[in-house]
Amino acid sequence: MTRNLALTEQINNVATDFGEIIGRSSPMMTVMKQVEMVAHSNSTVLILGETGTGKELIARAIHNLSGR
């Protein structure tokens, strides 16, 4: 029961940080780590991808996590 509550809290924290991004697969977790890394840098970011892949969601997550 305690482990379940801890996992639920962890999921809620990730959901809060990344807005509407709901993917929890290994590749998406890699993307989210990259988003966190670039959000805390002073780098310019170019997001590329096919239509409907969530580029705007990634951009919004970077913006929300950054201090800029």
Automatic annotation (TrEMBL):
Q: What InterPro entries does the annotation carry?
A: P-loop_NTPase (IPR027417), Sigma_54_int (IPR002078), Sigma_54_int_dom_ATP-bd_1 (IPR025662)
Is Nucleotide-binding found in the keyword set? yes
Q: Which GO terms describe its biological process?
A: regulation of DNA-templated transcription
Q: Which residues form the Sigma-54 factor interaction domain?
A: 21-68
**Highest taxon of source:** Bacteria
Q: Does the keyword Nucleotide-binding apply?
A: yes
Keywords attached to this Swiss-Prot or TrEMBL record, sorted alphabetically, are: ATP-binding, Lyase, Nucleotide-binding
One short Pfam name that applies is Sigma54_activat
Question: Can you provide one Gene Ontology molecular function annotated for this UniProt record?
Answer: ATP binding
This protein is called what?
Answer: Formate hydrogenlyase transcriptional activator
Query: What organism is recorded for this protein?
Result: Leclercia adecarboxylata
What lineage, starting at the top, does this entry show? Bacteria, Pseudomonadati, Pseudomonadota, Gammaproteobacteria, Enterobacterales
